[in-house]
Amino acid sequence: MYTSLEHYIDGNWVKPSGAKSQDVINPATSKPIGALGHVSKGDLDRALAAVDKGFKTWRKVSSFERGKILRKAADLVRTRANEIAKVLTQEQGKVLAEAKAEVLSAADIIDWYAGEGQRAYGRIIPARADGVRNMVVMEPVGPVAGFSPWNFPVTQAVRKIAAALAAGCSIIIKCPEETPGSPIGLVKCFHDGGVPAGVLNLVYGVPAEISEYLIPHPIIRKISFTGSVPVGKHLNALAASHMKRATMELGGHSPVLVFEDVDPEGVAKLMGAMKYRNAGQVCVSPTRFFVHEKVYDKFVGKFTDIASTTKVGDGLDPDTRMGPLANPRRVNAVETFVNDAQEKGAKVATGGKRIGNQGNFFEPTVLTDVPESARIMHEEPFGPVAVMLRFKETDEMLTRANKLPYGLASYAFTTDAKTATKVADALESGMVTINHFGIALPETPFGGIKDSGFGHEGGSEGLQVYMQAKFISHLG
Ligand code: NAD
Question: Fewer CB atoms near the end CB (10 Å): N or C, the chain?
Answer without folding.
Answer: C
